[in-house]
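Researcher: I'd like a structural prediction for the single chain below. Treat it as a standalone chain; there are no partners to consider.
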Amino acid sequence: MLSVKDLKLAYGKRVLFEEVNLNFTKGNCYGIIGANGAGKSTFVKILSGEIEPNKGSVTVSPGERIAVLKQNQFEFDEQTVINTVMMGHKKMWDVMHAKDAIYNNPDATEDDYMEAGEMEAEFGEMGGYTAESDAATLISGLGVKEEYHHSLMKDIPANLKVRVLLAQSIFGNPDILLLDEPTNGLDIETIGWLENFLADYENIVLVVSHDRHFLDAVCTHVADVDRQKIKIFTGNYSFWYQSSQLMARQINDKNKKTEEKRQALVDFIARFSANASKSKQATSRKKALEKLSIEEIEPSYRKYPGIIFQPLREVGNQILNIEKLGKIVDGRPLFKDVTFSVNKNDKIAFLSRDPLAVTSFFNIVNGEATADSGTYEWGTTITNAYLPQDNSKYFETPLNLMDWLRQFVPPHITDVDEPFLRGFLGKMLFSGDDVMKMTNVLSGGEKVRCMLSRMMLQNPNCIMLDQPTDHLDLESIQSFNEQCTEYKGVVLFTSHDHTFVQTVANRIIELTPKGIIDRLMTFDEYLEDERVKTLREEMYS
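Model: Treating it as a single chain, here is the predicted structure.
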């Protein structure tokens, strides 16, 4: 068991946590959620011992081992991939080197060899004799090919380093596993592998993630970091979000009778508990929900941004036509022979195994880059608003937020006073003196919210989004997702967020070095379609 008692952490006058008391128990996976800056990653560092709290204690049951997902990709540059993974079980790694040092010492005594013999037994009990093959199996499952297993970490691609460090953290089945954003840098297939692994994991897992699909797939509980407290709720992220929203609506609705409110919550829990039978963690989650009392559900106190795109006019029959578009970078074809037309009501998710491919495609059709071949043409009725993955060029000149937004007001809007601009910034949670904040001190999430204010000003009937959930907290992602689902215009986007893609897209286009795959179906249907799987392998071979 992992316990936290009377925890407090403050930096000067800023208090992150105060009087936090929690117990994390075996067999459960806890999703740590909270707004950006609430202290999620800091809390994980306290649990791992990397940060000392001002007050309170963290207690681990005797003999239990904690493993942490490392974030420094350069820490193990001089180690081989296999050794880096095995180093995740520090005690086993130390014992292995200690006994080997005795065997390699020509001056070793009989007592030394007796000690080495004892270490051999301990080494075997920890799984040391199968450690190398176990490590190889683990990293192969995470998509690291055998050709890299004995390479130095500094010599393998950066995207594979992330996977090796993830394998290091889960190697040897630690009793307590701490994962901070484990899906960053992983492709769809590898995230699926990790979901299955954690769903079957029998020890304690704490995970910080902005990926709602991942949290829903693996979590039995949610640890909500809010207002200097951390509270644990039964259920995955979707259950926490939906139940807290339901409770908030009922509190605001003074006309409902208490018993009616209670029955609505009972019915909601029953429906969710029934759905849990379809989950990979069905048994533990269903048992937890069966014990859940109505009193445990609380409304969320978080603020959700008001992301609202209102098209000034409806799209015409011609939206976007692409003919044989192609792009090569450093001799590597990103995509070629891209030919398709966008239709009314299309919400298209663009995929590629090469992330540069979709970004290059979006930049080309937005006039910010040139293609090596082919053409594109926008319809005359289209007002397009683009959210690029890299927004740095929009913030090169230091301005306060009011002046920054003012420069993007379109010509058809003539009455631009302070309340008008404050209204758009307020929807993005910039209120009061926040609107005078300078753009050169904004965080990544604040810059994205500024870009969304800019987009809303355009009254677009077509929005293009390149990794829209990057840098956003769960509240902003949830609001963004809901708006894109309800939006009456055309959406062209790419995202690593599984839930975002599944709930928004009604068409999937995959850009490959040999052409495109274009299907009218949902994301999950696309991933499960056997004919698509075969075609994808052909396109990338």
